[in-house]
Amino acid sequence: MINGTDRILVCCGTSCIANGALDVADAIEKELEARNLTGDVRVDVVRTGCSGECEQGPVVRFMPRDLMYYRVAARDAKAIVDSLDGAPVKKLLHRRDGQFFEHMDDNPFYALQHKVVLKDVGIIDPLSLDDYIARGGYEGLKRALAMTPDEIISEVEKSGLRGKGGAGFPTGRKWRSAAGYDEWPKYIVCNGDEGDPGAFMDGSTMEGCPHAVIEGMIIGALAIGAEEGVLYIRDEYALARDHIQHAIDDAYEAGILGDSIMGTPHKLHLSIVRGGGAFVCGESTALMASIAGKVGEPRAKYIRSVQRGLFDKPTVLNNVETLASIPTILRFGGDEYAKLGTEKSKGTKVFAMVGKVKHTGLVEVPMGTTLRTLIYDIGGGIMNDRPFKAIQTGGPSGGCIPESLLDLPVDFDTLTEYGAMMGSGGMIVMDDRSCMVEVARYYVDFLCEESCGKCTPCREGLRQMRAILTDICEGRGRAGDIELLERICHTMQDVSLCALGRTAPNPVLTTIKFFRDEYEAHIDRKECPAGVCPDLTRFTIDAEACTGCGMCSRVCPANAISGEVKAAHVIDPDKCIACGSCRDACRFDAVETMRRMPA
Amino acid sequence: MSDTLTITIDGRPCACEPGEYLYDVAERNGIHIPALCRSDAFEDHRACCRVCIVEVEERGRRKVVTSCVYPVERECTVYTNSEKIVEERAVTLALLAKRAPDSETIVSMAQEAGELDGFDRLITLDGEKCILCGLCVQACDSLGTGAISTVNRGVDKKVSTPYDKPSADCIGCLSCANVCPTGAIEYTQDATSRTIWSRTFELAFCERCGNLMGTREAVHRAAEKAGVEEPRVCDACRKKELADEMMQTYRYV
C-alpha cells in the first residue's frame, strides 16, 4: 500500500550520475506525477549520495520496504513505479551466483559491512539539513556543547579514534596537544584533498553527508578552542564542494554555525578553500602553505602543526573520514565506538575497492577485517574468476600485498609491518594479468609528476627510479638494478623531507619483496610473466582453442588480427602493438603470450 | 633564563641553548657538516638539499634528521658520520651529481662522499649545474624583486622567470648568481651592458671615478627603496665628495 511514507532513493553519487542517475530520478518523478503520487498521498524521490556499489549503478532503493534495484536506466521508471506496491522488477535485482537479492542487507556486498561514517550516505538527501537531523544529526554536537573541552577530548581519546587519512595518529592526542597551547587564534582544518589513484572515500562522504563533516569540525573546534575553520577540498571534487557549501550555508541559517552555535556563546566560522590541484597538497604542511596562498610545498616538521600550523598558529588538521566519525563518537560515547575494531585500531574504515574485483565500490568495515573478506566475501572475488595476484593498498604511499598475506587483518599497524600500509583506504585488486614491475613503474611515474620537487632524494630518486624501472619494463634491465633500486629507496625513506617522499619507495620495495622473481624474469630473461610489457611480449592465438568468434579482431586497435568467421584467427606480429586487448576480450583463453626477445 | 643543554656530537660534549639548530651547535664546536642549501641569510628556507643529515639518538631511539632545521630540545647523542649517514649522504650527493654533472663543486663533493662508480647506471642531465636548492629564489624574494621562482613540480621543477620570458621585475642585480652554490646562473657582461635571465641591462658608472655601480635598474631600485635621489657617483666617491666639502667648510677654522 502506498500511504505517503514511501521514499525512492536514487543514488546520485559521482559514479551513478555519470551513468545517468539524474535522468533516472527525473523519469521516476515524471512517472509519479503521471500517477498523481505527488499530492497528499505521495512518494518522494530523494537524490542521495553514493550508496556504495558503484559498478552496479545507478542504484535505486525503496524505503521503508528496502527494495534495491541496480543498473537502472530512465526507461525502467515505469516498471519501478509499478513495483512500488507489487512484485519486484526481477531484472533489476542484484544477482550473484544465480541468486536474486531483494533487500540491501541480503546482498553480501552490504551484509558484511558496518557503517558508521557512511551510515547516512546513500540514505539522506545531502542537501537537506532536516534529513540529517531526522537521522540523529547534530545530536553529538548537542552533547558536546554541554561538555567541557577536556571532556570532549576524553571522549575522543576513549574511542581510540586514529587519523584515517593514513597516518593513524591518535585524534584525541592531537586535539589535546592543540588545546594545550595558549596562543590564539587556533584553527581547525579539514583535509579533503584526497588524491590517491582509485580512491574516492572522502569525496563520497562529503558528497553524501556533508553535515557529518561539518558537525565533526564544530566539535573539534569546541575541543581545541578554535573559532575559525577551513575545509581544503580537492579541486576536482566539484560536487563535494557544492554539497559542503550548501551544508555550510544551511548550518549558518539554522544557527549551527556562526557567532552563536545553537544559542551558546561558542563561535565557529567555516569556509572552503579549493585545492591547488597538486597531489602533494594533501600533505599537512603543504596543505597549510596552500591555504595561506603560498606554493604548496611541505616544510620540515620538527615543530608540529598543532603548535605552529596554519598562519603559524596552533592548528588541528583532520581528514574528512576522521571528522565524520566524531558525531557518532560524541552521540553514543567513545566506549561504544571502541567496541569496534582491533586492540590498537578502533572503529571502522572506509575503503574504495576497485580493479579486477567483481563488485567494486565504497565499503565500510570494522578495522581488522581481513583482505580476503574484503575481496572475496564483499567484493565477490576476482573478475572472470581469474587467479588473484596482488592488492595495492594505500595508493602511491602503500604497497602491493600478495596472496600469502590475504588473511592479515587490515588496520593501521599490521600492513605497515609488511612494508605496505592501509593508507587512506584506496584498494586496487589485481589479477594474474598485472605486471608488478609495471605497477611499480606506474606509481613512480605518478609521483615524478606529483612530488613537489623541493628536496633532493624525492625528486632525483624518483627520476632515477623511473628511468631504471622503465628500462626493466622495456628489456634494458641490467644485473644489479634491483640492488640499486633498493639503495635509492632506503635513502629516500630516511632522508626525504615529507611523508610523500619517505613513503614513495613503498610500491617499489613491496613489489621487489613479494614479486622479486618477476623483476628477475624481466632483467635476466627479458620476459614479462604477466604478458603486459609490450616490449617483452608477443601475442599469438592458439588455433585449437580459437572458435573464430571474431571478438579479438573487433577490439584490436591496430587491425592486426585476421581470420574467417568460425575459423582460427591469426595475429600479424608486424602490426601488433602488444596492447593485450585481444587477450582481455577472448572468452576462450585462446590468446597466448610469449617472450618477444631472445633471452 | 633557559637551561643550557649539553649534547654529544661525534663523541664530543657540546653546550647549547634549547631550540638551537643542531647544525649551528656543531659548527660552533668546530664540527663541520656538509650543506648546500643552507644560508644564514634565509632562516625560513632550508632543508631542501638534504645533505646536512645526521643521526640523532634520543631516548634510546635513533633517527635521521636534517641538522639545519632540527631544534635541540633535550639531551641527545649525534652522529654526523655513522655508517647510515655516510651511505645516505653518498646516495644523496650521487643523485645531485647526476642531476648537475657540470657542477664541479657537486661532483667533487659526491666523489668525496663515496665512489660514484656504483652509480654509473643512473641517468645524467647533461649540461646542468643547478641543484634546485632555491637560494636564488629566496635572494630575489628578499630583495622584494620576485623576478624568479621555481616553476613546475616534481622532476620537471626548475628555476625561471615567468613563462621563461624576460622579466620586467628583474633588475639584473646578480644576487641570484652570487648566492648560487654551484655557479649555475649564467650571465654575460661587456663594457656597457649585462645580460641575465634573457634580459639585457644598461650599466651605470660613477661619474667621478668611472667605476661600475650596477645596472641602471638596480641603482634606481636601491635609491627608490632608500627614498633618496638617484646617485650619480659611487659610494666611495660620495664619501670623498663629502670629505672634500667638509675640508672646504672647516679649512679656516
TrEMBL record, chain A:
Name assigned to this protein: 4Fe-4S binding protein
PANTHER family, sorted: NADH-QUINONE OXIDOREDUCTASE SUBUNIT F
Family annotation (Gene3D superfamilies): 3.10.20.600, 3.30.70.20, 6.10.250.1450, Glutaredoxin, NADH-ubiquinone oxidoreductase 51kDa subunit, NADH-ubiquinone oxidoreductase 51kDa subunit, iron-sulphur binding domain
An example Gene Ontology molecular-function term: NADH dehydrogenase (ubiquinone) activity
UniProt keyword annotations, A-Z: 4Fe-4S, Iron, Iron-sulfur, Metal-binding
CDD domains documented for this protein: TRX_Fd_family
Membership in a protein family: Belongs to the complex I 51 kDa subunit family.
Highest taxon listed in the record's lineage: Bacteria
Record domain 4Fe-4S ferredoxin-type: where: 537-566, 567-596
UniProtKB/TrEMBL annotation, chain B:
GO molecular function annotations of the record: 4 iron, 4 sulfur cluster binding; metal ion binding
Pfam families, A to Z: Fer2_4, Fer4_21
Domain 4Fe-4S ferredoxin-type: 121-153, 159-190
Domain 2Fe-2S ferredoxin-type: 3-84
UniProt KW keywords: 4Fe-4S, Iron, Iron-sulfur, Metal-binding, Repeat
Protein name (Swiss-Prot/TrEMBL): Ferredoxin
Organism of provenance: Slackia equolifaciens
Phylogenetic classification of the source organism: Bacteria, Bacillati, Actinomycetota, Coriobacteriia, Eggerthellales
